[in-house]
């Protein structure tokens, strides 16, 4: 019997109650949110429960929402895949802008090691319990996290760019 999204939702709500919420189909991927304090156990349950069987971590990434309220300024998004039933999940958890931290899932998926390091490197999200949380792509002496939206997209002092070549003109005409 195929794994249905309502089965996943019912099992998670029964186990975690209001720590899992906002279940929906989004672009053909069953998606939901989990609270930061429950995310590790939710992912563990999705992996180890025989009838769920989400044994593959496809992706893990960070997102910065500076316009959101303080408790939801960062998100970590997980994509899991059940290869047997060919079902994909997207799980999002929101974090505080003041102290974005989350429990690591490297004990569940070894591949999370590099994904969490990249998320730390670019967004400054601290993964508690990570075995080697350090920069992976940027220089170790770098003090900022370049994917945070607190930095301007372009350097206003550049003189080597001609806006005409980028579809921008002074009169927008």
Task: Outline the structure in words.
Helix 3 links the parallel strand 6 and strand 7. This protein is an alpha/beta fold. The protein has a single domain, classed as Beta Polymerase, domain 2, CATH 3.30.460. The longest helix has 12 residues. The chain has a 5-stranded mixed sheet with strand order 1-2-5-4-3. The mean pLDDT is 90. The chain is built from 3 helices and 7 strands.
- The helix fraction, in percent, is 10-25%
Distance between the termini: 59 Å
* Total number of strands: 7
- Reading the helices and strands in chain order gives HEEHEEEEHE
Low-confidence runs (pLDDT<50, min 5 residues)? none
CATH C-level class is: Alpha Beta
CATH homologous superfamily name?
NADH:ubiquinone oxidoreductase Nqo5 subunit
Instruction: Tell me the β content.
Output: 25-35%
Our count of helices gives 3
Structural class: alpha/beta
